[in-house]
Design a protein that fits this description.
The chain has helices at about 25-40, 40-60, 65-85, 95-120, 135-185, 195-215, 215-235, 255-260, 270-285, and strands at about 125-130, 245-250. The two termini are about 20 Å apart. Helix 2 (about 40-60) packs antiparallel against helix 3 (about 65-85), helix 3 runs parallel beside helix 5 and helix 4 packs antiparallel against helix 9. With about 300 residues, it is mainly α. It is globular and about 60 Å long. The protein has a two-stranded antiparallel sheet. It has a domain at about 90-285.
Length: about 300
């Protein structure tokens, strides 16, 4: 689909309000502005602002506010894609959304449980029951992490990755968005250059590859949600943020093994597992013909 518009030409020669070539000055300016806004970088920035504002206002709200924010963010995303980018949004289709979310969630759950089990076996973690109200803790975690997972995936994979791959191809897009995903976590408690690199490698790359493989926001949001929620319920800091969980997790030994105060994402084991999963999903995406080459304007449909 073309993302540009052309200025209209007057039927006659140059007249008042036209340039020497006969173009209407207002239309020419509107055409240039339209081309800028509807370019990949234009609709990406428009969407990042819109979804980012919604996320900022609702992400830490009480009760179901983060979920309501996620619903609003999806609506903003849809509007930007349809009205600004002028493209369809098969990546947010309702058909098959539950299946994709469950599949992504199963991968995210397995990733965290395998990582935690290995670290625990090496003596890095020990757990004790926290004694908080079960339903209250689970409800709070689910509401918070749904909002986080959906809005972050719309921002980084829905908008940034898809826009950048229109310009430079899928391979460059996954590298750039992965790096920015890591940088975005530098402001969290306990963050360091290592934790940012770890997030970029295990999460940024894996979630990017997951999106390229499935071309589905619900798949990557499900993966992201299960990852964060499992960590929180186990009492492990989620990217430096410590929230009330069902268990209390105590870390022992080297921060390389446990991630220290930043949590699981800064540990070596999940970095290795995350990179291996990212490579596997990227290979599946390539085999399925779902990668865009450099400078391609083609659109890959969800399968």
């Amino acid at each position: 689909m073309s993302t540009t518009s052309t200025a209209r030409h007057d039927a006659g020669g140059p007249g008042p309000g036209t340039d020497p070539d006969g173009h209407d000055g207002h239309d020419a300016r509107g055409g240039r502005l339209g081309r800028i806004v509807r370019s990949p970088l234009g609709w990406m920035l428009t969407g990042l602002v819109g979804v980012g504002v919604v996320s900022g206002l609702t992400a830490t709200g009480p009760g179901p506010v983060p979920v309501l924010g996620a619903v609003a963010a999806v609506a903003v995303y849809w509007l930007v894609m349809r009205q600004v980018a002028r493209r369809s949004t098969p990546e947010t289709a309702r058909r098959g959304a539950g299946r994709e979310a469950l599949l992504g969630g199963a991968i995210g759950l397995g990733f965290v449980l395998v990582s935690v089990s290995l670290i625990t076996a090496f003596g890095g973690y020990s757990f004790s029951w926290a004694g908080h109200g079960f339903m209250a803790v689970v409800w709070s975690a689910v509401m918070l992490q749904i909002g986080t997972a959906v809005t972050e995936e719309l921002l980084f994979r829905g908008l940034a990755l898809q826009a950048l791959e229109q310009l430079w191809g899928s391979r460059a897009a996954i590298v750039i968005t992965g790096l920015f995903f890591g940088i975005a976590h530098l402001g969290t408690p306990g963050a360091s250059a290592w934790s940012a690199l770890a997030i970029a490698s295990e999460a940024g790359a894996m979630l990017g590859a997951a999106f390229l493989w499935r071309r589905n926001i619900w798949f990557v949001a499900g993966l992201h949600f299960a990852w964060n929620t499992t960590e929180q319920l186990l009492g492990i800091p989620v990217s430096g943020h410590t929230s009330e969980g069902l268990f209390t997790a105590d870390a022992h030994g080297s921060a390389v093994l446990t991630g220290g105060g930043f949590g699981l994402e800064a540990a070596l084991v999940p970095v290795v597992l995350g990179v291996l999963l990212a490579v596997r999903m990227f290979v599946l995406a390539r085999r399925g013909g779902r990668l865009l080459p450099r400078r391609s304007a083609g659109h890959v449909q969800a399968g």
